[in-house]
Amino acid sequence: MVSKPVHGLPLLPGFTFVDPTKTAFPRNQTLSFKNGYACSRVPAVGLGKEPIHVNQLSQTDLDELANKIPTLTYEEPRQTPLADFIPAHVAFDKKVLKFNAYFKEMVPLSNVEDYRIRKVVIYYYLEDDSMSVMEPVVENSGIPQGKFIKRQRLPKNERGDHYHWKDLNRGINLSIYGKTFRLVDCDPFTKVFLESQGIELNPPETMAIDPYTELRRKPIRMFITPSDFDQFKQFLTFDKKVLRFYSIWDDTDSMFGESRTYIIHYYLADDTVEVREVHERNDGRDPFPVLLKRQRLPKVLKDNSKHFPRCVLEVSDADVKEWFTAKDFAVGQTVSMLGRTFFIYDCDKFTRDFYQDKFGFPEFPVIDVSKKPPPVIKQELPPYNGFGFIEDSAQNCFALIPKTPRKDVIKMLIDDHKVLRYTASLESPIPEDKGRRFIISYFLATDMVTIFEPPVRNSGFFGGKYLTKTKIAKPGSCVDNPSYYGPGDFYIGALIEVFGHRFIIQDADEYVLKYLECHADDYPQETILSLKKHFSRQGPSMTQEPASGQAEDTKDKEDKDKENKDEMEMLIKQIQERLKGSNFLIEGPIREAFEILDKERTGFVDKEKFFGICKTFNLPVDDCLINQLIRMCTHGEGRIKYYDFVRALSQ
Question: How many other CB atoms are found less than 10 A from the CB of residue 566?
Fold first, then answer.
């Protein structure tokens, strides 16, 4: 609560009262931010915004008190540290005072002018107190101009003193080496510097006017121009004015000719022509800039000058009927100069403005002479000749030295060593081909197929490799863009035509069904269903043992059993021939292992125990023929007759 003294009474206990209407008692901030930095400040009011009845100091007074160095009463005062010494060449580096001035030069041997006003610029370099005098170059003045007095320390008097910047001011005369310069004005930096040093500058003066220069600017022509052309006037009027044309010389009609660009310069001062060559980077040409040096070019020669030896002698006006002029050059026209025809396709802005003002020509257009790319020729492959793969044959059309076609490396890495095996029979009208069995292997990494015929004794066929690794095209597909057989085309009962031979798929590995089920989205469902149906009915339907003590009643069943037995014997012979020379043909240990598990000597073991023994002896159960034998030896659910299996692995 805030207490207030009664008006007119001293601030004593008992003479104050509390303001009951006051409810806010904020404290004033003592911190603030200035230019992004925190700084302290003295509060102007007290608690609850009550005025402070004390003598307050300003921020400047507070800063002065904070930075005030205390003085000692009983000791000697300490010396204030000297400021850092900065040499003049560092403090005044690149700082120059500039004064505009002039001096009068007497002209005693002229009846047109008595004196001449020459304007100069005086530079004073603060770093070493040196001075220089420069005279601006005036065009066609006839006077050598530029550096009038080189940079040096200029003497002021005979005692050896030199001029200092304190001696310079506006509106004064400066004597240097016998010449009197009148300083007229200075630049803003010089004015600020001198005023900062306490020098009061005189008011600026106007630059003196040269009477002869003014007379030349406004000549009074009291005579008539002669009829013949004034070449000197042409030189003074068109000096350093050049017409520039961009041209092209097309020499493609000749042997080893080409199209090259040039720049034609026409000098208006003396009607001369120059042709310069435009070089490009890495163009392979010698860097000669000028094709035709600056000279007057004859346009039409006289009749008696056709055999003039121009190679060794210069052409004079007596031999030329007409010379090249500015009217002979225009954008869009061809100009023949010394046996070469140049086509002008563009010019610069000054040339365009000159032709519009001088001759009234319309604005020249810009002609596009860039080389257009030749039309793209579509590459068409020749018809396929039937040798090798189409990809290999097509490489001979792409390069002189054929390269190996690109392969799908990712597919080769993912599907490496993945092979789908099928059992197939040959469909042929020849009776000897009946009963021949083939193993078709499909390599997923390269989409190639191999066909192998297991050798069978006394069959009349040698067996072995029937078809090497290659791609098989579907019948009726286009020769140039064939469609090849894939895993989705190999289903049970499918007819595969291989180069005129027809094969019917009879069986497959269980790995084929597992692979197709894992990639069911990539292959037809009909193929997967056909393999599932085949494997579901393969086990119990292959060799179904008759009930014990029950004989076959019908002749058809006997024929079927005989056929199954013959097929079993043929399959066992194929396995023995295939595994000939391997370590698997050891009957004793494998038979003993099965007999240990078959304690009741029934000739059957469980499926899990059977495959456990096969895994122990590293038997190739994934092989197509062995897998087919296991299915033929399977009876019922989960029971396998191991006698025939062991007999197939025996010697």
Answer: 11
For the chain, what are the domain ranges? 3-67, 88-213, 231-358, 409-539, 556-648
pTM > 0.90: no
CATH annotation of 409-539: 2.30.29.170
Q: Which residue has the higher pLDDT, 647 or 234?
A: 234
Contact 93, 127 (CB under 8 A): yes
pLDDT tens sequence across 273-283: 999 999 988 88
Question: How far apart are alpha carbons 551 and 557 in whole angstroms?
Answer: 10
Tell which CATH architecture fits domain 231-358. Answer: Roll (2.30)
Q: What CATH number matches the domain at 556-648, 1.10.238, 3.30.70, 1.20.120, 1.10.3470?
A: 1.10.238
Beta bridge partners, 408, equal none
User: CB-hemisphere CA count at 13 Å for 294?
Assistant: 9
Question: DSSP class of residue 634?
Answer: B
Shared fold status for 231-358 and 409-539:
yes
Residue tagged 């010089």 (tokens): 190
CA distance 255 to 472: 54
Q: How far apart are CA 264 and CA 344, in angstroms?
A: 9
Specify whether the CB–CB gap between 132 and 149 falls below 8 A: yes
Q: Which of 520, 632, 648 is nearest to 579 (CA)?
A: 648
Arithmetic mean of pLDDT, 318-345: 89
Residue with the two structure tokens 């507070």:
62
DSSP assignment of 115-154: EEEEEEEEEEETTTTEEEEEE---TT--S--EEEEEEEPP
CATH 3.40.50.300 fits 88-213, yes or no: no
pLDDT in tens, 201-255: 999 999 999 988 888 777 666 666 665 667 888 888 889 999 999 999 988 888 8
Q: Where are the beta strands (DSSP E) in 558-612?
A: 604-606
